[in-house]
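Render this sequence as a predicted structure.
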Amino acid sequence: MKSLRVATCQFPVEPDIASNLRYTLRQIRQSARQGARVIHFSECSLSGYAGVEFPDMSHLDWEALVAATESIQQAARETGTWVVLGSTHRLTGRHKPHNCLYLIDPEGEIVDRYDKRFCTGTGGRQPTMDLSHYSPGNHPVTFTVDGIRLGLLICYDYRFPELYREYYSRGVQILLQSFHNARATVVDDESYNIWRTIVPSTMSCRAAENHMWISANNSTAHPSRWPSFAVRPDGKIVGRLTLHRPGVLVTDMTLDPDLFDAPAPWRDRVLEGTLHSGRLVSDPRSASVTGL
């Protein structure tokens, strides 16, 4: 059976790029020592998150961000690991930047970039919503490590199951999903934290629907709504870090054909538009829907 060791990393993302860089470099080295081939960081983990860590893009030091990214590229090269780095990608002119994941290969090269496709908000002046600060992306990103296909998503993308079906159709077996569900107060009643249940349960559902592993991470900045975790293809959460504590979760993501896959017999037909199992019957009592 094929297997890939993935490190799911979390730390308190700050508006301080130097602080984020120190955590990132430390966790790359820690992950590499534990044999991780792919090291996965949370949304905007290097740059900080506009509207949350800082009010707008005028507060982002682009030169410092570029220098820090180059340091991380060097660390990937030194450790021989793949690094999926949450950051912000600058565009030209008046265009808002992308909320992105840089894909850095073991040679230290940026070989692709995933831009968050579903940014939160609806536009206009919404200071804590993505569309006030970021431009949405328009394409999936896949890559292959040791014969296993991986894909990338960011946070609010999880509300759109079509994205996971798209990745399934591209042969993705491990999905790396970076979140930032911290610091901002999103509920008034702290005893009822819907995010602590809805994100893990949705990730379990997406994993089981598409029979893929998922690495889901989050910032640990207070108040963080849930800790980072990993889900196997049958929907079971198999590892979880500690809330509000920096850490690395290393998981051997093994492609085990014996893991339960309830929709397997019909999934490919569904993707082709056949929305039922088995064979339909031609029967007048089936066609008539108003009588006993």
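Summary. The helical segments are 17-33, 62-79, 161-169, 194-210, 267-271, 284-287. The chain is about 25% helix and 25% strand.
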